[in-house]
Amino acid sequence: MKFIIFFLIIGFSYQSYSFETNIVCADFDACDFKSSESAIEFESESTKLGFITTTFSGRALKFTISGKLNQSKVENVEVMIPVGGLSTDLSGRDDKMWTEILNYKEYPKMVITFDSIEHGYSGLVKAMITIQGKKYPLEEVSLQTSYENNALKVEGRGSFSLKELALPDPSIAIAKVRDRFDFKFKALIK
What we know:
Layout: H1 2-13, E1 17-24, E2 39-48, E3 52-60, E4 62-69, E5 73-82, E6 86-87, H2 91-101, E7 109-118, E8 122-131, E9 134-148, E10 151-161, E11 175-177, E12 180-189
Antiparallel strand pairs: 1-4, 2-3, 2-11, 2-12, 3-6, 4-5, 5-7, 7-8, 8-9, 9-10, 10-12
């Protein structure tokens, strides 16, 4: 009888459960990376007239995280970002990003997936991004995870190239946009 109870305890302690967390921010400021529990932010540079370089950033105002979670790891993680939920807090830039760069009417969402990540992990992982209906690897995503009090905390960062994702160059005649975009993210899954 003791062995049956032991196996039942072990079996229940390693059960996984599916989760889905929806993040929606009222506006650009509400999705501030420093003050939000869950956030996605991207950044690049624009050089105007060949010598004035400025940094610009954007945020995901809406996204959904889903997957399976147990006591030792998280699996089948999917981050779905509606293209119309991305914002740089500048309407002209946003409109160009949604329509000309990401073609949101035909491809209304992008999806980032991770396979399996152990709790307490710190290092590089591979991820996949599906953008405009095509899958591309995100080779070097730096990731840290911790699991305490039945909550998973994830933080990470990486970069991508517009050319590598077959996305159009958003540059205009007087302003050249850097091809490489940096991104960072964090999530608290309870």
